[in-house]
Amino acid sequence: MPKRPESTGDYAVGTFTYTVYNDREELLEPGSKRSIPVRVYYPVLKESVKDLSKSKYMTREMAKGLSKSMGFPINYDKEDAAGNNVSNCYQDAPKIEGKKFPLVLFSHGFMSFRESNSFLCIELASHGYVVMAVGHSYEGGCTELDDGTKLYFKKELKKKLYQPYFKGMKETMRLIKSKETDERELAQKFDEVQKNYSAFLVNRVDEWEKDSIAAVKRILIWRRDLS
Length: 227
Known about the structure:
- The protein is an alpha/beta fold.
- The chain contains six helices and eight strands.
- The strands form two sheets. A six-stranded mixed sheet has the order 3-4-1-2-6-5. The chain has a two-stranded antiparallel sheet with strand order 7-8.
- About 35% of the residues lie in helices and about 20% in strands.
- The chain has a domain at about 10-155: 3-Layer(aba) Sandwich (Rossmann fold), CATH 3.40.50.
């Protein structure tokens, strides 16, 4: 957990979380409903956070989940004691009343986690954007819901990353190491590899889009109810 870079914008950054519960059928856990955790980063006035503490970057449960899914150990206590477990944002910092900002959505993708690119989300927020980082249940190292539920990565999904696994991985690595300079042609080759070997992940993009739509709808409902 390296120290997070300082943001460069004119604003400090606040953050809060919410969860959209029971949005639709959970395809990765038959018989259950899909829940979507969201972390929001938003611009705040720098003078409003002078007496506030910075938010934690990672929970102990997240460190445990990432250690299991990624296969590398994270010494949570050591990193936390060293001061490396902080983000340059402030939990529930006072919002700027009467001012609107453009919205950006961030999706962590497969085997990552909601706060994985928090430094980028915070940087954007410091320049006047509201950034919604959407979590994807069972597909991240650990998905943390606001009621305390922890949903860890489903290991069996790794087998679906490429099908067949070794041939798909070999083709992907070959393209990553490619020295071709035609970006359009190289992109087309990557698309072809995804089509041939990564049908599962390609289809998951549709589910991630639904997660993002559900997250935005919840924000819009709250805004309507408060107006």
